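Researcher: Go.
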Amino acid sequence: MAPKEVAVDRRRRMNKETQVPAKKLKTLVSMKPIVSIVIPTFNRAEYVGQAVRSVFAQTFADYEVIVVDDGSTDNTKEVLAPFKCANFSLSLSA
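Model: Structure:
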């Protein structure tokens, strides 16, 4: 079964088991992504943007992207600034 079909099958089962109206099901599932992609980085501004763009280019859409920056001194924060959206978060460590 393809990943997209698995997600649809999971949603159908969830709808049947919990009796959530199909209209609200998309919102319910979107609130809790199936997949979390964690990208650790330290002074890798030249690669981290490409990594995030690669995730956003996937056809599977039920995910969240978490970039953990361990105190980079390069321009990592500036490279990641354009990616602000609902399924993206940046965690900064000192």
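Model: The radius of gyration is 16 Å.
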